[in-house]
Every structure is written in structure tokens, then in C-alpha cells.
Write a structure and sequence with these properties.
Rossmann fold, seven-stranded mixed sheet, binds 5-O-phosphono-beta-D-ribofuranosylamine, alpha/beta, 217 residues
Length: 217
């Protein structure tokens, strides 16, 4: 049975440099992904990701506590912006804020996050940036990696979509390991998005599994 192609209207949430978002945009431009990047939401007006969106003429919105001190107003602004862009899928790409439960509810199983380690290890609140890789090195594990997962109300706990293992070498520093992992992030994120574009997976409790080839949907 032919797969249903649902081209996604992707909104990205990002706070920093935005290399993951730019890898996704590259994949869209090259035709590897069929989706559209409809906009970027950032809490950080000075972020690389905003500069990148500007250069690509992708709409963006800066939504943060300075501009919206009231939390429910802030969340409503995010929801309204997503509606304005007709977004039906969200990717978190280095977004440093927690996603409000109202957004998680509205986009149930439609929000992905990427984490630079093999969850459920080395995740959770405050585990970001170099801290992740320092913890990995301190723990002595021989493999780290990348996890793309669905966002739920608990940090880094949602169903895992894809993982990629990355070796840890004896002479690694956190910076070197971070770089090796980031490279894999740029590949795995688009692969994860493609699974949703082509409607190839289903969420069963904590597991994300491939739909059976002959299953009716
Ligand atoms: C990545 O390491 C990602 O795994 C984490 O935040 C970082 C974002 O990097 N969630 P970039 O802004 O996409 O370059």
C-alpha cells in the first residue's frame, strides 16, 4: 500500500545558533524533506537562528518573558503564532524553555526534541550544552549519541523516535565529543522528521514503532 505523504508545516523553536534548524532547512531545500519550514519561535532576539531565518526569509517571532511577563499571555502568543503560520508540527532545536502543557496537549505527538546523548541517561532539567558531555565523560561510558524524542510534559522523557550511537574516545574533551555528536544530530533529525512526513510510525505508550507495511490506516 502506498504511504500517505503528509507534508508537514514545521515550526521550529530555538534559542541559539540554530545549526539543527539550518540542517532541516537544507534538507527541505534539497528535496530530501517534503515539509515546509513555516516559522521560527525564539526566546532570544540575538540568536543565530533568528539571523538565519532572516537570511532565508522564513518568518520568525521573538516571544519571551520580557515581552510577555504574564505566562499565560506568553503561551497564548505562542499558540496564536503557530495558528497564524498554520503549523501542524513542531521541532525543538536547542530551545532553552519548557514547553507549556497547553502546547503539548494541542500538538500531541507532533512535537519533537533532539538531545545530544542517549536518553534516558544524561537528560532532564539543566542537562544541556557542554554539561551533558561532561557528565558523559565523567561517567566513563564508551558510547554516547543522539536521541530524537516526542515532547511530553516531562523533560527528556517522551517516547523515543530515533537514536544514533556515537563512540566516546579516550582523549575526548566535552567540546570534541559535542562536535562529533552535533554532526550526527544534523542527519538524524531529518530522518526522524521524514518518519512523520511519510506517516511511517505510530506511538504506542512509551514506544514509537514502525507501522506494519500492510496495516490499514
Ligand atoms: C544541540 O546540541 C541539541 O541537541 C540541543 O541543543 C543544541 C542546539 O544546537 N538540544 P543548534 O542551535 O541546533 O546548533
Amino acid at each position: 500500500m502506498p504511504h500517505k505523504h503528509s507534508s508537514l508545516r514545521i515550526a521550529a523553536f530555538a534559542s541559539g545558533r540554530g545549526s539543527n534548524f539550518s540542517a532541516i532547512v537544507d534538507a527541505i531545500e534539497s528535496g530530501e524533506l517534503k515539509s515546509t519550514a513555516v516559522g521560527v519561535i525564539s526566546n532570544n532576539p540575538d540568536s543565530g537562528v533568528i539571523e538565519f531565518a532572516e537570511s532565508k526569509e522564513i518568518p520568525y517571532a521573538v516571544i519571551n518573558k520580557n515581552r510577555y511577563p504574564d505566562e499565560s499571555e506568553l503561551n497564548n502568543k505562542i499558540l496564536d503564532t503557530l495558528d497564524e503560520w498554520n503549523a501542524n508540527f513542531i521541532v525543538l532545536a536547542g530551545y532553552m524553555k519548557k514547553i507549556d502543557p497547553s502546547i503539548v496537549r494541542k500538538y500531541k505527538n507532533r512535537i519533537l526534541n533532539i538531545h545530544p546523548a542517549l536518553l534516558p541517561s544524561f537528560g532532564g532539567n539543566k542537562m544541556y550544552g557542554l554539561k551533558v558531555h561532561e557528565s558523559v565523560l565523567n561517567s566513563g561510558v564508551k558510547y554516547s549519541g543522539v536521541t530524537v524524542h516526542i515532547v511530553t510534559d516531562e523533560y527528556d522523557k517522551g517516547p523515543i523516535v530515533l537514536q544514533q550511537v556515537v563512540p566516546v574516545y579516550d582523549d575526548d574533551t566535552a567540546e570534541i565529543l559535542q562536535k562529533r555528536i552535533l554532526k550526527e544530530e544534523h542527519t538524524i533529525y531529518k530522518e526522524a522528521i521524514r518518519l512523520f512526513e511519510e506517516d511511517l510510525v505510530v506511538v504506542l505508550g512509551q514506544r514509537v514503532v514502525r507501522k506494519r507495511e500492510n496495516a490499514e490506516d
